[in-house]
Design brief:
The structure holds 2 protein chains of 2 kinds. By secondary structure, chain A is mostly beta strands. Chain A is built from 1 helix and 17 strands. In chain B, a hairpin with a 3-residue loop joins strand 8 and strand 9. Classes of the chains: A mainly beta, B mainly beta. At the A-B interface, strand 8, strand 9 and strand 11 of A face loops of B.
Chain lengths: 230, 408
């Protein structure tokens, strides 16, 4: 009896364990398949033209979502310009600053989130620079005074830059969010465009964000850099 | 002073050679011109014509041969040497137009310091922004810049403090610039003698203006120190890089107009002026420049003081078409008055200049320039026996070939 009861007990325990495992798997699958909302942005200038290379960050206003995972990014120097001119990275990321020009550059920043200098160099002699505080870091070259680059270090869980059509898209969990659009030549009073939005699961939202003021004019294109000697 | 400058230049060359391995850059430019002109011999060649080339010089001419070197000395020092030949206008076939040492420390917070020592141009020009203090828009400089090239140079020190608003997210920087200099006690003499010109020659440092063997024997040596008093300039700039530059400057060589060279009895010329201007660049390739300058130059011989007030202004409009074509047009007005009995040195005139540059993006460029000067001067009426204003037309086709490492 004792001998026969044991298998029954074992079998019952096995069924319970299997059911528990199934329940756990179900719960896990349910959580994993929680429908994410699709968020599509179109960033426009006041005249309706698309704004490319604008920084988009999406911060959670409800439950705390941590910053996106750090990345390694590259900001090159080509034709005496920073390429790309604008970069957005999660806090804790590193950035390399190779110099692809045949002339030397001397990179610096005195912006509070990251103060650093890279003495005169060509090629790729320095290790990547760590950006461990949030905020906008403005870069310059001490040889070519007109060179300027911008790195937005963000703790937002979702971030990116708009494409040539002014578009940016992401899949985000349901919740309330604050969307911020920033560009170095924006004239908006707050120097950025902010919009709050609530998203339900499986929402497919397409938003158009339009600046109220035109950008400050870009430096003239096509001028020879050596013109700036004087 | 000349000997010490020579030693300075030699030392700089040695330093350049030493640092050539890392970061040094050089440029070698040759500019050949096909010229047609109906003007009299230029003021800068000892005559009375207001443009560079005379009727007799129509044909092929050397525009400029230039060698420039720039190199870092360590991290925050740079040395720059600029030597040019302009044909046969000067004492030496090739001379230094600029030679200076620059201190460029990293900005601290939002302030940037720049120091210069040596011989160089004060920050007066809005159009001459290309390498070698050349204009990218026209071959011939405006009347203002032609005079600066002819008679002015800072042989001394300059300090610039820039407040970097652009690094604070604002659209502009503010630059405060001041210089002290010597060896420019005869600045103004050529202006009072020959008036404004439309030219592109830059008098080499310690060289002279006008030929010693000219009929009149009229030549001046602007880069001399007679009274041992330093001159100065101070100015402010508002600068939105690549878009707007607004500048205002006060300049005074503080020469004692009563002092004279003990041997030659050449007098010092006290020259003081104000200048203001703006350069605006607009994305699709438009550039607009306007500049104004007004001042006076004076001497005080035993017979009594003599004074020549002067003023000049110009407006330039330029349009870049694609990456290869640049069209420019400029209008100059200039005037030299005379406050002495003979009224010598009086001049007034204006000039239209139009230029087209083709830059295929390789080592050579071609520029076609037409200019017409209408001027009425004491010298022309006295020595050329002109009756009323004279009009001179000069057309130049320049081929420029640039060798060297890429610009620094």
């Amino acid at each position: 009896m004792t001998r026969s009861a044991r298998p029954i007990l074992t079998a019952r325990r096995g069924r319970i364990a299997a059911l528990a495992a199934l329940a756990l798997l179900g719960a896990l699958l349910h959580a994993g398949c929680a429908p994410a909302a699709s968020l599509k942005l179109a960033v426009k200038l006041p005249d309706g033209q698309s704004l490319a290379d604008a920084v988009v960050t999406v911060q959670s206003m409800g439950k705390r979502l941590g910053p996106a995972a750090p990345v390694h990014a590259v900001m090159d120097q080509m034709h005496r310009m920073f390429v790309p001119e604008v970069l957005v990275i999660p806090v804790g990321s590193t950035v390399s600053f190779p110099n692809s020009d045949s002339v030397s550059h001397q990179i610096y920043s005195f912006s509070p989130p990251k103060r650093f200098q890279l003495p005169l160099y060509r090629g790729k002699p320095y290790p990547p620079v760590l950006f461990d505080h949030t905020g906008v870091v403005i870069l310059g070259c001490n040889i070519h005074d007109w060179m300027m680059g911008y790195i937005d270090v963000t703790d937002a869980p979702f971030y990116g830059t708009t494409d040539a059509q002014g578009g940016w898209a992401a899949e985000v969990p349901a919740g309330r969010y604050e969307i911020t659009v920033w560009h170095p030549r924006m004239r908006e009073q707050t120097h950025s465009l902010v919009r709050e939005i609530s998203l339900e699961g499986s929402d497919r939202v397409a938003l158009t964000l339009q600046l109220t003021k035109p950008l400050r004019p870009a430096p003239m294109e096509g001028g020879s850099p050596s013109w700036e000697s004087y | 002073m000349r000997a010490s400058c020579g030693r300075l230049a030699f030392g700089a060359v040695v330093l350049l050679a030493a640092s050539a391995v890392h970061g040094a850059a050089w440029e070698l430019d040759l500019d050949i011109r096909a010229v047609t002109s109906d003007a009299a011999t230029s003021v800068l060649d000892g005559g009375y014509g207001p443009v560079r080339f005379s009727e007799r010089q129509s044909g092929l001419q050397l525009g400029r041969l230039r060698l420039a070197l720039e190199a870092p000395l360590g991290q925050v020092w740079r040395v720059h040497l600029d030597a040019s030949a302009w044909g046969n206008a000067y004492k030496r076939p090739i001379g230094l137009t600029e030679a200076y040492l620059q201190f460029r420390p990293y900005p601290r917070k939002d302030l940037r310091l720049r120091l210069k020592a040596g011989a160089f141009y004060a920050p007066l020009s809005l159009e001459n922004r290309a390498s070698g203090w050349a204009s990218p828009y026209t071959l011939s400089y405006s009347a203002i810049d032609s005079w600066i090239a002819e008679e002015l140079r800072t042989i001394g020190l300059e300090a610039e403090v820039d407040w970097l608003g652009t690094r604070r997210g604002l659209p502009f920087d503010i630059n405060a610039i001041a210089g002290v200099f010597g060896w420019n006690d005869l600045a103004g003499a050529a202006l009072a003698d020959g008036g404004f010109v439309i030219d592109d020659r830059q008098t080499p440092v310690f060289d002279r203006v006008g030929k010693i063997e000219s009929k009149t024997g009229a030549y001046t040596e602007p880069f001399r120190e007679l009274d041992h008093r330093a001159g100065y300039y101070a100015g402010l700039q508002l600068h939105a890089p690549g878009r707007v530059l607004i500048t205002a400057i006060h300049y005074d060589n503080r020469a004692d107009p009563a002092s004279a060279d003990a041997v030659s009895r050449v007098l010092a010329w006290h020259t003081v002026f104000n200048s203001a201007g703006a350069r605006v660049e607009y994305g699709p390739g438009w550039t607009l420049i306007a500049q104004w300058m007004a001042g006076r130059t004076e001497i005080a011989p035993l017979t009594g003081p003599l004074e020549w007030p002067f003023n000049a202004r110009y407006a330039l409009l330029s349009k870049r078409i694609g990456r290869h074509h640049l069209l420019s047009a400029r209008y100059d007005r200039f005037e030299v008055d005379s406050r002495n009995a003979r009224e010598d040195g009086q001049e007034n005139g204006h000039c239209f200049t139009a230029a087209y540059t083709f830059d295929p993006g390789s080592r050579w460029t071609a520029t076609l320039e037409w200019l017409r000067v209408t001027s009425n001067s004491y010298s022309q009426s006295e020595y050329l026996k002109s009756d009323g204003p004279l009009t001179d037309t000069q057309i130049q086709l320049a081929f420029r070939y640039a060798l060297g490492s890429t610009p620094y």
